[in-house]
Amino acid sequence: MDAVLTCMVDEKIGPGELNSRFIQTLKEFTGCDGAVAFRTPTLALSYALKALGIEKDTVIMISALAPAWQYSSILELGCKPLVLDVDEQTGVLNSQIVSDGIHAGGRLLILHESMGIISDIDQIIALGIPVIEDISHSIGAVVKAPENEENTEETPDKKAPSRKAGSFGVFAILGLEEFDTVTGGGGAVLMAGQRRDWIPLKKYTDEAPVTDILPDLNCALAWIQLKEFARNEEARKKLFAVYNSAIIKGKNKTFLRDTEEGSTIWSFPVVLNGSFKDVKQYAQRKEIEIQLAYSNSVISILDEDESSKLKVAKSLSLRTVLFPLYPRLGSDSATKIVKVLSTLP
After folding, report:
1. How many other C-beta atoms can be found within 10 angstroms of the C-beta atom of residue 286?
2. Distance spanning both ends of the chain, measured CA to CA
């Protein structure tokens, strides 16, 4: 926390050295070619749309379980949101759902990798439309290349290299909000994975007013979390494995995911077989607080007519809960949670 305290003591809290330091660390961590940290996710999206040359009234596809800011921001920026249902097993979009969205008029996809899960992404990219990845939950996840894919780079290994979350789309947005995997207490980073995409983006971001750029105080907090990411993720994965073993014993389930490097452990979601109210009361009696996973998602702000058409997402939004999972969770609390997971009604 020295970096945060130094900002406060020196009263250097606007965009400056720590913003640059955070961006450099992020580039090294993700392998992206360029990145800019903004004060809000909406600002990050607006610059991405400028760089892509997206016109007003363009239909932009989003997941029904993506964060609600995506829907409101698309409207604010003069475009039209097309909300898509999700895959029941993963809670994220798949290529068939996106393909159907394209046939319905979708021209750009914001792909939210909810709960840290990356699924079907090669097939989605192959559909040929611009994709902006939202890696707010999935940063750090690695997708292995297919076994039959050859390496086109000049390296001794004949196998194609694995790719990190954020490297598949034209751009990627990393949220730094309160409940994102890496938080700066607010803000978002817009990243370009390739030089050809960074060049047009840089033209706009170089002209950005200072009031659009994330201050050093927020960058300091995000920078610290990014530097500690590997250690924290290892702790989260250990907890996830124990929780997962407990949930298997009951009638409730969690989402399908690659539990090695292929997903990031953002939290522990449980898709309930029964009533949320009953499970919440049961957990509270055991001194465990749970919450609905998608209370701030797109589907939560749609009217009943719209949300009823998104049957899978609607069902998941009512039945999916989050159990506490964070690196510094004490062993006593973890033991309580495991007992609750293995005996859920």
Report:
1. 11
2. 42
Q: What is the CATH classification number for the domain harbouring 315?
A: 3.90.1150.10
**Burial (CB count <10 Å: 0-12, 13-18, 19+), residue 305:** exposed
pLDDT at site 9: 42
Same domain, 142 and 41: yes
Residues β-bridged to residue 54:
none
Helices first, then strands: H and E counts in the chain: 13, 12
Q: Tens digits of per-residue pLDDT, 156-169?
A: 555 667 899 999 99
Q: Give 304's contacts (C-beta < 8 A, 6+ positions apart).
A: none
The verdict on 130 and 212 lying in the same domain is yes
pLDDT of residue 15: 61
**Please, are residues 265 and 236 in contact by the beta-carbon 8 Å criterion?**
yes
pLDDT greater than 70 at residue 154: no
Task: Based on the fold, state whether residues 188 and 160 are members of the same structural domain.
Answer: yes
Same-domain status, 64 and 194: yes
Sign of the alpha-carbon torsion through 312, 89, 93, 292: positive
**Average pLDDT of the residues in 198-202:** 96
pLDDT surpasses 50 at 74: yes
**DSSP-derived secondary structure for 192-217:** ESSHHHHHHHHHHHTT--GGGBPPHH
Domain ends where: 197, 227, 257? Answer: 227
Q: Which domain holds residue 136?
A: 2-227
216 with 305, same domain: the answer is no
Q: Do residues 59 and 80 lie in contact, with contact meaning Cβ atoms separated by under 8 Å? A: yes
Which residues are bridge partners to 142 per DSSP? 164
